[in-house]
Amino acid sequence: MTMEFARRYRSRSHIPAEPGKPYFIEKGMGDRAHLFTDLVTVYAGGEQTENAFNFFTVEGPKGDIIPAHLHSDTYEVFYITDGAVRLFVEDLEGEQYEKVLTTGDFGFVPKNCPHAYRIERHHSRVVGVAAGPGGTFERFFENLGAPTEELGLPREPYVPEPHKFGTVPQQYDVRFLPDHQWRTES
C-alpha cells in the first residue's frame, strides 16, 4: 500500500510535499507527465530535498532531438537504464561534444552548458538527476507538458501551447536556445 497526497497541480501524488519524511514509490508510480512523445516520471524533487536535487526518468520512442537549452543554476546527469540516447553538450569554451550513451552509460552536463539529446532506440529510458544552488526543475515537465495518470507513452505527441514556451521555462531554470547549432550533429 502506498499513500497518496494532493498537489496544487494534480489530484493524486505518491510523493509527500514536506521534506524529512521517508517514502517509497513503486516503479512508474511517481508524478507523471507527457511532453512531446515522452513520459516523464518524477520520484523526488525540491519539495522533498529542500531544493538539493531531483530524481526523474524520461522514457520515449526513437525520435527527434530535444531542443537545445541550458540551466544557469543547475547541474544535470543522464544515466541510461534502457536503450540508447545521443547526448549533445557544449562546454563553456564553445567546444561541442556528442556521445551515444547506451545501457549503463553516464553523462554529466555542468550548469550554463548548452545541451540536447535524442532518443536513438525505441523503449529507451534515462534516469535524470539535477542539482544546483538555485533549486530544482522537475516541475517544468508537468507545467510545460500535461500531467497524466497513464503509465505509458502518450498516444499522440503532446505539443505545448506556444505561450507556455514564453513563461514556463524561465520559472524552472530552463532557457531554450532556438538558434543554437550543433556542429557535431549526426
From TrEMBL:
User: What organism is recorded for this protein?
Assistant: Streptomyces flavidovirens
Coiled-coil blocks: none
One Pfam family this sequence matches: Cupin_2
InterPro entries associated with the record: Cupin_2 (IPR013096), QDO-like (IPR053146), RmlC-like_jellyroll (IPR014710), RmlC_Cupin_sf (IPR011051)
SUPFAM superfamilies annotated for this entry? RmlC-like cupins (SSF51182)
In this chain the Cupin type-2 domain maps to 60-119
Record protein name field: Quercetin 2,3-dioxygenase
